[in-house]
Write a structure and sequence with these properties.
This protein is an alpha+beta fold. The chain contains 4 helices and 7 strands. It is 28% helix and 32% strand. It has a 7-stranded mixed sheet, sandwiched between helices. The chain is globular. Bound molecules: coenzyme A.
């Protein structure tokens, strides 16, 4: 797949059922463990407590995705997943998705957005810190393969 040109405007929209094949393919390319299944994605697309976002640019309709969870009675939203197509990385797609996730959580009146990230995932950590996420904890052996996670949180401005 060709990456978007550096000047392309990245748009972010809500995912629908026509995105399922792309969502699953990107999940498999991006994560070695703790993957979302097709059935889980289908449920999240229909759920009021989940939001699946998709990034596109010009005619390239699927460049990446972010998955957000909301819990009834909680004002903390969770960014469960963020991934950009390998050929489109380093062009602002991840940052656009993360900013859209922050806006969506703010619009739902959440006071914070939280996420966990592998402690060896330097590019994701840089992206989160650039957008003012703060490291608030370490979770030993959090992932299926035994890797630790950092927990990050961003306080949302209202
Ligand atoms: C982490 C991940 C989502 C980042 O996505 P991305 O689309 O590459 O993110 P961005 O392009 O917004 O930012 C990445 C880099 O590109 C740079 N960049 C952003 N816009 C740019 C542009 N227009 N031109 C050139 N570089 C740009 C950023 O400054 C950043 O640089 P840095 O990492 O050296 O600081 C992606 O690497 C990925 O999918 N990884 C696999 C899955 C994963 O690990 N997900 C996160 C854990 S849940």
């Amino acid at each position: 797949m060709k990456p978007p040109p550096a000047s392309a405007t990245v748009r972010v929209r809500r995912a629908d059922n026509t995105d399922l094949d792309d969502l699953i393919a990107l999940e498999q390319r991006s994560f070695d463990s703790d993957r979302l299944s097709r059935a889980q994605y289908r449920r999240h697309l229909d759920s009021a407590s989940a939001l699946v976002l998709v990034a596109s640019a010009n005619h390239r309709h699927f460049l990446g995705t972010a998955v957000l969870f909301f819990r009834k009675g909680s004002t903390i939203a969770r960014l469960y997943s963020l991934a950009t197509q390998p050929a489109a990385r380093g062009k602002g797609v991840g940052s656009s998705l993360l900013q859209a996730a922050i806006r969506a959580a703010t619009d739902r009146h959440c006071r914070a957005l939280r996420l966990e990230v592998r402690t060896d995932n330097a590019s994701a950590i840089r992206l989160y810190e650039q957008l003012a996420f703060r490291r608030i904890g370490q979770l030993p052996q959090y992932y299926q393969d035994g890797m630790d996670a950092w927990r990050y949180e961003k306080t949302l401005a209202h």
